[in-house]
Amino acid sequence: MVRQTIQIFARVKPTKKPTAVYTVDNEEHSGGSLEFVIPRDLADGFINNKRESYRFRFLKVFDQATNQEEIFETIAKPVADNVLAGYNGTIFAYGQTGSGKTFTITGGAERYSDRGIIPRTLSYLYHSMVYTTQISYLEIYNEVGYDLLDPRHEASNLEDLPKVTIMEDPDQNIHLKNLSLQASANEEEALNLLFLGDTNRMIAETPMNQASTRSHCIFTIHLCGREPGSATLHRSKLHLVDLAGSERVGKSGVGGQILTEAKYINLSLHYLEQVITALSEKNRSHIPYRNSMMTSVLRDSLGGNCMTTMIATVSSEKTNIDVRFCPIFALSSSGLADRQASEAQGDLLKLKDILTQRDNEISILCWVYLVALCMLWFSPLFHMLDLKAQNTHFCSASSSGPELSIEQQEAFEIFRNDHGDRLTLEDNKAILKQRFAEAKALGEQVNQARNRVSKSFSLPPLPPPNPQSDTVEETLRSQIEEEKKNYKSTFGRLKGLKTEIEHLQHLLQRSKIKLKRDFQDWWSQEATRLQYWHHALHYGIPYYMLHIPFRALSSTTMSSTSIPLTGDHQTDADILAFIRARQSLLTRTGISSSIHAGQKRGKV
Ligand SMILES: Nc1ncnc2c1ncn2[C@@H]1O[C@H](COP(=O)(O)OP(=O)(O)OP(=O)(O)O)[C@@H](O)[C@H]1O
């Protein structure tokens, strides 16, 4: 297996504020370099021997103008290709708080073109080949793991959520308990999971960044697929890691919970540095993975034939730049990046080596597989041969043959007599027969004892059935049936009554409304009538004249008087004119005489 080098790139965050003086130098063969010039601060004292220039080497340095597409093409695409080929991969964003790690890994929220490595990689993977894909999103906060895709995240406190724990099987494979693997059939589903996880992340405001991510987040894409035309399935995973911002505790001016978080963050970043430095050392046998949760989780995806890429994000703002305390520069100054730069030229050859090596490994694996298959087929034969050999061996050993090994002697221990001499096969058979007979006799005794015990504990026999109780039961049962029937019919009747009552209530309601309307009509007519009566009395017109139904008068007759029958705004003169007109009309039509007659008969 060819070991892959860990590749480290740097990205300078664009800024509008005054920047520290820095220069970027990207040479084709020797990689890139980033140099900062930080003038000595006189406030530090008269004697100040601090360095003013800091130069760091990376595989490539991306300056402020670099866009997200370029970052994906150079950094993430090669790793994604490697993952598609069946190898694990990890991409880290590493840097000070506010230097652009989340922007690089997830992306900015303002423009579509600001999409970061995760969305672009998902799009690339889904367009590359048909794979079954699963997503997990782990958050490591203060060295405790949480599942960011756990639906309970929104409703519960962090402490109430189940903690993700690391378990190791005998083959030293890592398993994460309580971390869900969510199947995502397409890019959209995967992006939804990313957004769900991002909303659940632990974010706090720090003096250096208003929305500083306080935890390490590992977005893992688990792939399972086969290359076209191949029957072999391969599994691989790609970890996209947004590390919590490293910060100088003194400088960030924080306390309380944020100070605790900062301590955890810095400590875990320190352990990560240790692992990365150890991986880059050629003859290093022990890699300290177990020191932190993050390195334990990423153990199978760091170093070896896994492609590990780091992008060191740098903010060139004067207030933020403190190269001496940014851990990534510690890595760079430890010579790791230097080594990588010089190794950059050999990468192409190495990749070729890897592929040849892989081909060799595959052919070796095929041979091993073939041999294993043969052994599986012939194993019964081998077993028979082995038994035969053992038998011969034993028979010869039991007489006067060669000495047995200690294990064989222990296995054959029962075949010795009281003096420790080995017995012949016939003797052994006899002993076994005798022991078998003894065991049988013992079994017999146990059975007898069991019978005795069960007899002494047996329950009294059941009383014979009582015919009288049967009839009582029968009567009771029929009574219950009768009651049930009664209940059913009563229930039916009640139901009918209820419907009837509801119907009557409805009718009542309607009658009430009608009555109200009739009363209102009657009342308005009565009011008008009273008004006329009042005027008639006033002007000496007999009461009976007003009792002639208004409808008895034809509309034509009324129109000739041009006085309306009813009206709220009639003047006294109008009403008087109406009464007079009615008086003359009654006289003309002769109705007044019949009224007189009726009045006399007491009908009016
Ligand atoms: N390359 C860039 N281009 C444009 N804006 C950027 C770039 N890098 C970062 N930013 C902006 O800078 C701000 C801080 O960036 P970001 O949140 O990614 O920093 P961070 O390193 O993840 O911080 P922390 O460690 O505190 O979470 C954001 O508003 C982000 O949009």
UniProtKB/TrEMBL annotation:
Keyword field contains Membrane: yes
GO biological process, one term: microtubule-based movement
Family the UniProt entry places it in: Belongs to the TRAFAC class myosin-kinesin ATPase superfamily. Kinesin family.
PROSITE patterns according to UniProt: KINESIN_MOTOR_1 (PS00411), KINESIN_MOTOR_2 (PS50067)
Signal peptide location: none
Domain Kinesin motor: 5-343
GO cellular component: kinesin complex; microtubule
Provenance organism: Electrophorus electricus (Electric eel)
Binding site for ATP: G95, Q96, T97, G98, S99, G100, K101, T102
Protein name: Kinesin-like protein
This protein's UniProt keywords: ATP-binding, Cytoplasm, Cytoskeleton, Membrane, Microtubule, Motor protein, Nucleotide-binding, Transmembrane, Transmembrane helix
